[in-house]
Design brief:
This protein is mostly helical. It folds into two domains: 54 residues, Arc Repressor Mutant, subunit A (Orthogonal Bundle); 37 residues. 68% of the residues lie in helices and 0% in strands. It is built from four helices and no strands.
Length: 101
């Protein structure tokens, strides 16, 4: 995962430069990317390779998808609950009980 605007290929090339021995500051300066961004990419790469604890890129994607789906379902439940409330209001007399004739 990464900030939109940097392709996965670009991030991979940056990580390859670091693996070749270049410093973060040097790569950041040459490619006009912030040091912190490169540190984040390196950290995430280490997590993805199992060298550091944390959520992998795949797990982060799955979590984001699940959170989005949960939000959609919560919205659907709210809509259904509101529909039930409106139907109850339409079928129940206001201000008292219903009389049989």
């Amino acid at each position: 995962m990464g900030r939109p605007g940097y392709s996965a290929e670009f991030r991979r090339k940056v990580l390859d430069l670091l693996a070749d021995g270049r410093s973060v500051a040097s790569v950041a300066h040459d490619l006009d990317v912030s040091d912190q961004t490169i540190y984040n990419w390196r950290r995430q790469d280490r997590i993805d390779r199992g060298e550091q604890p944390g959520l992998t890129t795949t797990e982060k994607g799955e979590l984001a998808t699940a959170k989005k789906r949960i939000a959609e379902l919560e919205t659907e439940v709210k809509i259904a609950q509101r529909a039930v409330e409106l139907l109850k209001e339409q079928t129940s007399p206001k201000g008292g009980t219903r009389r049989s004739k």
